[in-house]
Amino acid sequence: MNSRREVSISKCLQGFFSEEGTLSKSLPSYEFRPEQLAMATAVARAIETERILLLEAGTGVGKSLAYLAPAIIHAIQEEKHIYIGTGTKTLQHQLMEKELPFLKRYLESSFSYALCVGSENYVCERRLGGGAFPGQEDLFPNPDEISQLRAWAQTCRQGLRSELDFPCSPQTWHQICRVPELCAGQKCPKGGDCFYQRARARIARATVRVGNHHLLFADLQSDWEYLPPRIS
Q1: Distance CA 180, CA 130 (A)
Q2: Which whole number is the average pLDDT over 150-171?
Q3: Quick one: pLDDT band at residue 179, thresholds 50, 70, 90?
């Protein structure tokens, strides 16, 4: 794919979705769907003309790829970031685990993507270790859960609650998750090892940022508390 608008988004999509395009040549089971290409082209035109677009499509059209592909092509060409908002966490994870890896493989262009969730979804190792309130570790509601969480925090990938493979009560998680009011920021002894700060760095670098509608509007109201500034 050429960059910097040497080729229009619509032409790139034609070369990707059409009966003679990249997907058809790469995937023996690929079935060309005119509705999918039409939807993707409509999204591309809306992006190129900076207009708002509302679309509705039936089951089996391939809606996710139809709006993701033109948005990603635009982001790559213009060296911008895009935020994909969803209504459910299920769709968030579907995009992260299925559609985006698929597009990264077959769009023939390099881009990165990251999941955006509220900061309360991340464990705070300082709070988990008792560092937020030294000498008050006995305030933890369930010592057994805390022991499990401390062991888990040593091996988990991103420090997300969704990564837990054992039950954790809401009360316990509330005691050890990241909350803005108790975050030590630059003074935190965890520094660059903080799960939340590492996630913010990944999101800042990502071409595609996937979150939900609630997080986006919460960020707008709180002056970009959760996401890095400037979603474009």
Answers
A1: 17
A2: 95
A3: very high
Residue 225 pLDDT greater than 70, yes or no: no
Mean pLDDT score of the chain, rounded to an integer?
88
pLDDT digits (tens, 9 = 90+) for 41-66: 999 999 999 999 999 988 889 999 99
Per-residue H/E/C for the chain: CCCCCCCCHHHHHHHHHCCCCHHHHHCCCCCCCHHHHHHHHHHHHHHHCCCCCCCCCCCCCCHHHHHHHHHHHHHHHHCCCEEEEECCHHHHHHHHHHHHHHHHHHCCCCCCEEECCCHHHEECHHHHCCCCCCCCHHHCCCHHHHHHHHHHHCCCCCCEHHHCCCCCCHHHHHHHECCHHHCCHHHCCCHHHCHHHHHHHHHHHCCEEEEEHHHHHHHHHCCCCCCCCCCC
